[in-house]
Amino acid sequence: MGLIEIRKELDEIDRKLVELFRKRMELVEEVAKDKLKSGKAVFDGRREEEKLNAVSAMVEEEDPAMKAYVREFFSELMTLSRRRQVQYLKEAGRSNHFSFQKADKLIFPEKKLAFQGLKGAYSYLAGRRIFPDENMISVLHFRDVFDAVEEGRADYGILPMDNSTYGMVQDNYDLLNRYPTMVVLGEIHYPVSHCLCCRVGEGLDHIKKVYSHPQALSQCRDFFYVHPDIEQIPSANTAIAAKELSESGEEGAAVLCSKEAAEYYGLSILREQLSKEENATRFFIFGKEKIYTEDAYKLSISLIVPDNVGSLYQVLGSFMCNGLSLSMIQSRPVGDGAFSYRFFIDVIGNLSDSRVENALSTLKEEGVDFRILGNYPKEK
Protein backbone atom coordinates (compact mmCIF):
# COMPACT_ATOMS: atom_id res chain seq x y z
CA MET A 1 0.00 0.00 0.00
CA GLY A 2 1.43 3.38 -1.05
CA LEU A 3 1.43 6.61 0.96
CA ILE A 4 -1.59 8.02 -0.90
CA GLU A 5 -3.68 4.91 -0.17
CA ILE A 6 -2.57 4.91 3.48
CA ARG A 7 -3.62 8.53 3.89
CA LYS A 8 -7.00 7.87 2.29
CA GLU A 9 -7.62 5.04 4.75
CA LEU A 10 -6.52 7.27 7.66
CA ASP A 11 -8.92 9.98 6.46
CA GLU A 12 -11.78 7.49 6.47
CA ILE A 13 -10.91 6.31 9.97
CA ASP A 14 -10.74 9.94 11.16
CA ARG A 15 -14.17 10.63 9.65
CA LYS A 16 -15.62 7.70 11.60
CA LEU A 17 -13.82 8.83 14.77
CA VAL A 18 -15.33 12.31 14.51
CA GLU A 19 -18.82 10.87 14.10
CA LEU A 20 -18.35 8.52 17.04
CA PHE A 21 -16.89 11.36 19.14
CA ARG A 22 -19.92 13.53 18.38
CA LYS A 23 -22.29 10.74 19.44
CA ARG A 24 -20.27 10.14 22.59
CA MET A 25 -20.43 13.82 23.56
CA GLU A 26 -24.21 13.77 23.10
CA LEU A 27 -24.38 10.94 25.62
CA VAL A 28 -22.02 12.87 27.90
CA GLU A 29 -24.54 15.70 27.91
CA GLU A 30 -27.23 13.25 28.99
CA VAL A 31 -24.95 12.22 31.87
CA ALA A 32 -24.64 15.90 32.81
CA LYS A 33 -28.44 16.29 32.83
CA ASP A 34 -28.70 13.39 35.25
CA LYS A 35 -25.99 14.87 37.50
CA LEU A 36 -27.79 18.21 37.49
CA LYS A 37 -30.88 16.50 38.91
CA SER A 38 -29.01 14.36 41.41
CA GLY A 39 -26.42 16.92 42.43
CA LYS A 40 -23.59 14.47 41.83
CA ALA A 41 -20.09 15.77 41.14
CA VAL A 42 -18.76 15.68 37.61
CA PHE A 43 -15.58 13.88 38.54
CA ASP A 44 -15.90 10.24 39.59
CA GLY A 45 -12.35 9.00 40.07
CA ARG A 46 -13.30 5.40 40.79
CA ARG A 47 -15.46 5.13 37.66
CA GLU A 48 -12.74 6.64 35.48
CA GLU A 49 -10.04 4.33 36.81
CA GLU A 50 -12.26 1.29 36.16
CA LYS A 51 -12.89 2.55 32.63
CA LEU A 52 -9.19 3.13 31.90
CA ASN A 53 -8.31 -0.36 33.14
CA ALA A 54 -11.07 -1.87 31.02
CA VAL A 55 -10.08 -0.19 27.76
CA SER A 56 -6.40 -0.98 28.35
CA ALA A 57 -7.34 -4.64 28.74
CA MET A 58 -9.00 -4.55 25.31
CA VAL A 59 -5.56 -4.43 23.71
CA GLU A 60 -5.04 -8.12 22.98
CA GLU A 61 -1.41 -8.10 21.87
CA GLU A 62 1.30 -8.03 24.50
CA ASP A 63 2.44 -4.54 23.63
CA PRO A 64 2.95 -2.35 26.75
CA ALA A 65 3.39 0.76 24.59
CA MET A 66 0.04 0.20 22.81
CA LYS A 67 -1.73 -0.33 26.14
CA ALA A 68 -0.24 2.96 27.37
CA TYR A 69 -1.33 4.76 24.19
CA VAL A 70 -4.89 3.51 24.57
CA ARG A 71 -4.97 4.52 28.23
CA GLU A 72 -3.66 8.01 27.41
CA PHE A 73 -6.16 8.39 24.55
CA PHE A 74 -9.14 7.52 26.73
CA SER A 75 -7.81 9.58 29.65
CA GLU A 76 -7.81 12.65 27.40
CA LEU A 77 -11.24 11.68 26.07
CA MET A 78 -12.67 11.59 29.59
CA THR A 79 -11.06 14.94 30.39
CA LEU A 80 -12.88 16.47 27.41
CA SER A 81 -16.08 14.76 28.53
CA ARG A 82 -15.82 16.31 31.99
CA ARG A 83 -15.29 19.75 30.47
CA ARG A 84 -18.41 19.31 28.37
CA GLN A 85 -20.37 18.35 31.49
CA VAL A 86 -19.06 21.41 33.35
CA GLN A 87 -20.07 23.63 30.45
CA TYR A 88 -23.58 22.16 30.44
CA LEU A 89 -23.99 22.50 34.21
CA LYS A 90 -22.83 26.11 34.10
CA GLU A 91 -25.26 26.94 31.30
CA ALA A 92 -28.00 25.19 33.26
CA GLY A 93 -27.33 27.42 36.27
CA ARG A 94 -25.38 25.26 38.74
CA SER A 95 -23.66 27.77 41.02
CA ASN A 96 -19.87 27.90 41.07
CA HIS A 97 -19.72 29.35 44.64
CA PHE A 98 -16.65 31.45 43.97
CA SER A 99 -18.26 34.13 46.18
CA PHE A 100 -16.36 37.10 44.69
CA GLN A 101 -18.38 40.28 44.14
CA LYS A 102 -17.79 42.82 41.39
CA ALA A 103 -17.08 46.35 42.65
CA ASP A 104 -17.19 49.64 40.74
CA LYS A 105 -13.74 50.66 41.92
CA LEU A 106 -11.21 50.28 44.71
CA ILE A 107 -10.68 53.27 46.99
CA PHE A 108 -7.15 52.80 48.27
CA PRO A 109 -5.85 56.25 49.27
CA GLU A 110 -8.52 56.85 51.90
CA LYS A 111 -7.60 53.64 53.76
CA LYS A 112 -4.68 52.54 55.97
CA LEU A 113 -1.85 50.42 54.56
CA ALA A 114 0.46 48.21 56.66
CA PHE A 115 4.01 47.68 55.39
CA GLN A 116 7.06 45.88 56.75
CA GLY A 117 10.02 48.01 57.74
CA LEU A 118 10.45 51.75 58.16
CA LYS A 119 10.21 54.87 56.05
CA GLY A 120 12.55 54.34 53.10
CA ALA A 121 11.89 50.58 52.82
CA TYR A 122 10.96 49.38 49.35
CA SER A 123 7.51 48.33 50.57
CA TYR A 124 7.04 51.88 51.84
CA LEU A 125 8.23 53.41 48.55
CA ALA A 126 5.98 51.12 46.49
CA GLY A 127 2.96 51.79 48.71
CA ARG A 128 3.55 55.53 48.53
CA ARG A 129 2.63 55.39 44.85
CA ILE A 130 -1.00 55.01 45.98
CA PHE A 131 -1.26 55.80 49.70
CA PRO A 132 -0.32 59.06 51.47
CA ASP A 133 2.30 59.01 54.22
CA GLU A 134 -0.19 59.59 57.01
CA ASN A 135 -2.13 56.44 56.07
CA MET A 136 0.86 54.08 56.15
CA ILE A 137 1.51 51.86 59.18
CA SER A 138 4.97 50.43 59.88
CA VAL A 139 5.35 46.89 61.30
CA LEU A 140 8.47 44.83 62.04
CA HIS A 141 7.92 41.49 60.30
CA PHE A 142 6.18 40.30 57.13
CA ARG A 143 3.76 38.25 59.22
CA ASP A 144 2.86 41.39 61.18
CA VAL A 145 1.50 42.89 57.95
CA PHE A 146 -1.08 40.09 57.71
CA ASP A 147 -1.90 40.36 61.42
CA ALA A 148 -2.46 44.12 61.14
CA VAL A 149 -5.04 43.58 58.39
CA GLU A 150 -6.57 40.53 60.08
CA GLU A 151 -7.03 42.44 63.36
CA GLY A 152 -8.37 45.60 61.72
CA ARG A 153 -5.44 47.90 62.56
CA ALA A 154 -4.96 48.38 58.81
CA ASP A 155 -7.36 48.09 55.89
CA TYR A 156 -4.75 46.74 53.49
CA GLY A 157 -1.25 45.33 53.49
CA ILE A 158 1.60 45.39 51.00
CA LEU A 159 4.27 42.70 50.59
CA PRO A 160 7.05 41.93 48.08
CA MET A 161 6.20 38.69 46.27
CA ASP A 162 8.50 38.29 43.26
CA ASN A 163 11.78 39.73 42.06
CA SER A 164 12.54 39.94 38.36
CA THR A 165 16.09 38.64 38.89
CA TYR A 166 15.86 36.23 41.82
CA GLY A 167 12.31 34.90 41.67
CA MET A 168 9.63 34.42 44.28
CA VAL A 169 9.85 35.61 47.89
CA GLN A 170 9.09 32.14 49.19
CA ASP A 171 8.19 33.03 52.78
CA ASN A 172 5.58 35.54 51.67
CA TYR A 173 3.84 33.04 49.40
CA ASP A 174 3.77 30.63 52.33
CA LEU A 175 2.29 33.35 54.53
CA LEU A 176 -0.34 34.24 51.95
CA ASN A 177 -1.43 30.62 51.96
CA ARG A 178 -1.65 30.57 55.78
CA TYR A 179 -4.08 33.51 55.87
CA PRO A 180 -7.14 32.24 53.93
CA THR A 181 -9.16 35.43 54.49
CA MET A 182 -6.64 37.59 52.60
CA VAL A 183 -7.46 38.61 49.01
CA VAL A 184 -5.05 40.16 46.51
CA LEU A 185 -6.56 43.43 45.25
CA GLY A 186 -3.70 44.96 43.29
CA GLU A 187 -0.06 44.71 42.27
CA ILE A 188 2.75 47.24 41.99
CA HIS A 189 5.96 46.71 40.03
CA TYR A 190 8.66 48.79 41.69
CA PRO A 191 12.26 49.18 40.40
CA VAL A 192 14.77 48.16 43.07
CA SER A 193 18.10 49.99 43.18
CA HIS A 194 20.29 49.06 46.15
CA CYS A 195 22.87 51.57 47.34
CA LEU A 196 25.88 50.82 49.54
CA CYS A 197 25.70 53.37 52.37
CA CYS A 198 27.81 54.13 55.44
CA ARG A 199 28.61 56.84 57.98
CA VAL A 200 29.71 60.17 56.53
CA GLY A 201 33.48 60.25 56.06
CA GLU A 202 34.13 56.53 55.56
CA GLY A 203 35.24 54.95 52.27
CA LEU A 204 34.85 51.54 50.69
CA ASP A 205 38.28 50.43 51.92
CA HIS A 206 37.04 50.86 55.53
CA ILE A 207 34.02 48.56 55.12
CA LYS A 208 34.28 45.19 56.89
CA LYS A 209 30.61 44.22 57.14
CA VAL A 210 27.33 45.00 55.38
CA TYR A 211 23.86 44.80 56.97
CA SER A 212 20.65 44.37 54.99
CA HIS A 213 17.64 42.16 54.32
CA PRO A 214 18.66 38.69 53.02
CA GLN A 215 16.92 39.37 49.68
CA ALA A 216 18.94 42.56 49.19
CA LEU A 217 22.18 40.79 50.07
CA SER A 218 21.34 38.06 47.55
CA GLN A 219 20.50 40.56 44.82
CA CYS A 220 23.95 42.15 45.23
CA ARG A 221 25.89 38.91 45.09
CA ASP A 222 28.09 40.21 42.25
CA PHE A 223 29.43 42.93 44.54
CA PHE A 224 30.22 40.42 47.28
CA TYR A 225 31.91 38.14 44.78
CA VAL A 226 34.36 40.95 44.03
CA HIS A 227 34.69 41.75 47.77
CA PRO A 228 34.67 38.31 49.45
CA ASP A 229 36.22 39.62 52.69
CA ILE A 230 33.20 41.78 53.48
CA GLU A 231 30.90 40.00 55.95
CA GLN A 232 27.19 39.87 55.08
CA ILE A 233 24.87 40.28 58.08
CA PRO A 234 21.08 39.77 57.66
CA SER A 235 18.71 42.42 58.97
CA ALA A 236 14.93 42.54 59.24
CA ASN A 237 14.65 45.24 56.58
CA THR A 238 16.81 47.51 54.42
CA ALA A 239 15.47 50.68 56.02
CA ILE A 240 15.76 49.24 59.53
CA ALA A 241 19.42 48.44 58.79
CA ALA A 242 19.95 52.05 57.62
CA LYS A 243 18.32 53.53 60.73
CA GLU A 244 20.25 51.26 63.11
CA LEU A 245 23.59 52.15 61.49
CA SER A 246 22.71 55.83 61.66
CA GLU A 247 21.95 55.54 65.38
CA SER A 248 24.87 53.26 66.31
CA GLY A 249 27.57 54.99 64.26
CA GLU A 250 29.35 51.65 63.95
CA GLU A 251 32.75 52.00 62.31
CA GLY A 252 33.59 49.82 59.30
CA ALA A 253 29.94 48.99 58.73
CA ALA A 254 27.67 49.68 55.74
CA VAL A 255 24.14 48.85 54.67
CA LEU A 256 22.31 48.05 51.46
CA CYS A 257 19.24 50.24 51.19
CA SER A 258 17.35 52.60 48.92
CA LYS A 259 18.65 56.04 48.08
CA GLU A 260 15.65 57.47 49.91
CA ALA A 261 16.49 55.51 53.09
CA ALA A 262 20.07 56.85 52.99
CA GLU A 263 18.72 60.39 52.77
CA TYR A 264 16.14 59.84 55.55
CA TYR A 265 18.75 58.52 58.00
CA GLY A 266 21.70 60.76 57.07
CA LEU A 267 24.00 58.15 55.53
CA SER A 268 26.63 58.66 52.85
CA ILE A 269 26.18 56.77 49.57
CA LEU A 270 29.35 54.92 48.54
CA ARG A 271 27.97 53.05 45.55
CA GLU A 272 24.66 53.24 43.68
CA GLN A 273 22.91 50.53 41.66
CA LEU A 274 24.66 47.52 43.18
CA SER A 275 21.89 45.24 41.93
CA LYS A 276 21.26 44.71 38.24
CA GLU A 277 19.76 47.65 36.35
CA GLU A 278 16.65 45.69 35.32
CA ASN A 279 15.97 44.58 38.90
CA ALA A 280 12.32 45.09 39.92
CA THR A 281 10.01 43.66 42.56
CA ARG A 282 6.33 42.84 42.31
CA PHE A 283 4.32 43.82 45.39
CA PHE A 284 0.83 42.59 46.27
CA ILE A 285 -1.72 44.86 47.91
CA PHE A 286 -4.21 42.72 49.80
CA GLY A 287 -7.21 43.06 52.09
CA LYS A 288 -10.18 41.03 53.33
CA GLU A 289 -12.80 42.04 50.75
CA LYS A 290 -13.59 39.31 48.20
CA ILE A 291 -14.08 41.75 45.34
CA TYR A 292 -12.80 42.42 41.85
CA THR A 293 -13.35 45.20 39.33
CA GLU A 294 -14.33 45.44 35.68
CA ASP A 295 -10.71 46.15 34.73
CA ALA A 296 -9.29 43.17 36.67
CA TYR A 297 -6.64 41.71 34.39
CA LYS A 298 -4.82 39.01 36.32
CA LEU A 299 -6.13 36.11 38.38
CA SER A 300 -3.88 34.54 41.02
CA ILE A 301 -4.75 31.09 42.33
CA SER A 302 -3.07 28.44 44.47
CA LEU A 303 -3.77 24.74 44.18
CA ILE A 304 -2.67 21.26 45.16
CA VAL A 305 -3.09 18.75 42.37
CA PRO A 306 -4.27 15.20 43.14
CA ASP A 307 -1.53 12.59 43.40
CA ASN A 308 -2.40 11.01 40.05
CA VAL A 309 -0.48 10.59 36.82
CA GLY A 310 -1.07 13.61 34.58
CA SER A 311 -2.93 15.67 37.20
CA LEU A 312 -0.93 18.87 36.65
CA TYR A 313 -1.25 18.39 32.89
CA GLN A 314 -5.03 18.23 33.23
CA VAL A 315 -5.14 21.30 35.44
CA LEU A 316 -3.10 23.33 32.97
CA GLY A 317 -5.20 21.90 30.14
CA SER A 318 -8.32 23.42 31.75
CA PHE A 319 -6.88 26.87 31.06
CA MET A 320 -5.44 26.02 27.65
CA CYS A 321 -8.69 24.59 26.33
CA ASN A 322 -10.46 27.80 27.34
CA GLY A 323 -7.94 29.96 25.49
CA LEU A 324 -6.38 31.43 28.67
CA SER A 325 -2.73 32.40 29.05
CA LEU A 326 -0.64 31.76 32.14
CA SER A 327 1.90 34.43 33.07
CA MET A 328 3.43 32.58 36.05
CA ILE A 329 3.57 29.13 37.61
CA GLN A 330 5.64 28.37 40.70
CA SER A 331 5.58 25.71 43.39
CA ARG A 332 6.24 25.46 47.11
CA PRO A 333 6.40 22.30 49.26
CA VAL A 334 3.23 21.74 51.28
CA GLY A 335 5.28 20.53 54.24
CA ASP A 336 3.26 17.37 54.86
CA GLY A 337 6.26 15.05 54.74
CA ALA A 338 5.01 13.44 51.53
CA PHE A 339 6.80 15.78 49.09
CA SER A 340 3.51 17.31 47.98
CA TYR A 341 3.60 20.71 46.31
CA ARG A 342 1.30 23.72 46.19
CA PHE A 343 1.31 25.54 42.86
CA PHE A 344 0.84 29.29 42.51
CA ILE A 345 -0.48 30.29 39.10
CA ASP A 346 -1.24 33.66 37.50
CA VAL A 347 -3.87 33.59 34.74
CA ILE A 348 -4.60 36.47 32.39
CA GLY A 349 -8.34 37.01 32.73
CA ASN A 350 -11.34 38.39 34.62
CA LEU A 351 -13.79 36.46 36.81
CA SER A 352 -16.63 37.83 34.65
CA ASP A 353 -15.14 36.13 31.58
CA SER A 354 -16.99 32.91 30.73
CA ARG A 355 -13.69 31.27 29.79
CA VAL A 356 -12.32 31.90 33.28
CA GLU A 357 -15.54 30.64 34.84
CA ASN A 358 -15.42 27.48 32.75
CA ALA A 359 -11.79 26.77 33.66
CA LEU A 360 -12.34 27.31 37.40
CA SER A 361 -15.60 25.36 37.36
CA THR A 362 -13.74 22.46 35.78
CA LEU A 363 -11.17 22.53 38.60
CA LYS A 364 -13.93 22.64 41.18
CA GLU A 365 -15.93 19.79 39.66
CA GLU A 366 -12.81 17.64 39.34
CA GLY A 367 -12.07 18.01 43.02
CA VAL A 368 -8.90 20.08 42.74
CA ASP A 369 -8.01 21.79 46.02
CA PHE A 370 -7.67 25.39 44.86
CA ARG A 371 -8.12 28.90 46.19
CA ILE A 372 -8.62 32.14 44.31
CA LEU A 373 -6.08 34.51 45.80
CA GLY A 374 -7.43 37.52 43.91
CA ASN A 375 -8.43 39.07 40.59
CA TYR A 376 -6.87 42.48 40.16
CA PRO A 377 -6.02 45.17 37.59
CA LYS A 378 -2.80 45.48 35.64
CA GLU A 379 -0.63 48.18 37.17
CA LYS A 380 -1.12 51.44 35.32
TrEMBL record:
Organism: Oribacterium parvum ACB1
Domain ACT: 300-377
Known function: Catalyzes the Claisen rearrangement of chorismate to prephenate and the decarboxylation/dehydration of prephenate to phenylpyruvate.
Gene Ontology MF terms in the entry: chorismate mutase activity; prephenate dehydratase activity
Upper lineage: Bacteria, Bacillati, Bacillota, Clostridia, Lachnospirales
Site (Essential for prephenate dehydratase activity): residue numbering on this chain: 281
Prephenate dehydratase domain mapped to chain residues: 112-289
Pathway the protein takes part in: Metabolic intermediate biosynthesis; prephenate biosynthesis; prephenate from chorismate: step 1/1; Amino-acid biosynthesis; L-phenylalanine biosynthesis; phenylpyruvate from prephenate: step 1/1
GO biological process, one term: chorismate metabolic process
Designated name of the protein: Bifunctional chorismate mutase/prephenate dehydratase
Catalyses which reaction(s): prephenate + H(+) = 3-phenylpyruvate + CO2 + H2O; chorismate = prephenate
